[in-house]
Design a protein that fits this description.
The chain is an alpha+beta fold. 16% of the residues lie in helices and 20% in strands.
């Protein structure tokens, strides 16, 4: 009997399946008491409401009721439907109230993050200072920035911590969406949008600037002008000769610098 009900459900809903997850249940949002396929469906719908004061996001932990998509029975959150006995999700997290049939994602719940992640537990570790799970390849191999994932992507401004998109950890420790990172590099933007540190190896570019400066003679009135600079790459402050093409850091030889006011010496 259960197999017949499930077959009818598949035939009747094949064009109405949630675009985010494969599952056999819907959720009742406690914030507005409406029924949605998943948390993301709710957030997409409410974020476009005409009245800005009605816009809101669903807190995953607050979901208390689900509706079986096979027999339409509303019930408390659980893996198996209390009426028809169907498994509502091959992966089920009681904490996040999360269901998903696609086990190839390698879903796992991280207690420290407080949410479910994908990619396989064995491939990730939780960095307590950064406040998020990172690939094991970054263990002892990344610059820690406190709560680096608990902010918005500096390019598209989507919140990173629970984003469905892949993220990239920059050399400086700041994070952004991987697709935003590649788009930024494609547009020859090679500095972190947050701290301005170089995010790729710029040594070849610096050598080209050395050659350009050597071939470009400054006017007599500017040839011996000196300025103070702050290096965005090493944070060193030095006094150097001004040049229209750029100012080179004496410490790390980077041209990723900016002119600053002279330091105030103690009296």
């Amino acid at each position: 009997m259960n197999g017949l009900i499930l077959a009818k459900w598949v035939m009747g809903t094949k064009n109405k399946i949630c675009k985010h997850y494969r599952r056999r249940c819907r959720i009742r949002a406690p914030c507005c008491n409406e029924v949605f396929d998943c948390r993301h469906c709710h957030n997409e719908a409410t974020s476009s409401l005409h009245n800005v004061f009605d816009r809101h996001e669903l807190v995953r932990y607050d979901v208390k009721q689900v509706i079986c998509s096979v027999c339409d029975t509303e019930q408390p959150v659980a893996r198996v439907c209390t009426n028809c006995g169907v498994n509502m999700g091959e992966y089920f997290c009681e904490v996040c109230k999360f269901y998903d049939d696609d086990l190839d994602k390698g879903q796992f719940h991280c207690d420290d993050c407080g949410i479910c992640r994908v990619g396989g537990r064995e491939n990730f570790f939780h960095c307590s200072r950064c406040g998020s799970c990172y690939s094991v390849s970054l263990r002892n191999n990344h610059s820690c920035v406190e709560n680096s994932m608990r902010h918005h992507c500096p390019i598209c401004y989507e919140y990173l911590f629970d984003s469905l998109k892949d993220t990239t950890v920059l050399k400086c420790g700041h994070t952004m969406h991987t697709e935003c990172y590649h788009e930024m590099i494609k547009r020859d933007k090679c500095c972190c949008p947050i701290c301005s540190r170089s995010i790729i190896d710029m040594s070849r570019a610096w050598r080209r600037m050395d050659e350009e400066i050597e071939e470009t003679i400054m006017p007599e009135n500017l040839r011996y002008k000196k300025v103070w600079i702050l290096c965005n790459d090493c944070n060193d402050t030095t006094e150097v000769f001004f040049h229209i093409i750029g100012q080179k850091c004496r410490h790390c030889e980077s041209y990723n610098t900016r002119m600053i006011a002279p330091p105030v010496l103690p009296q």
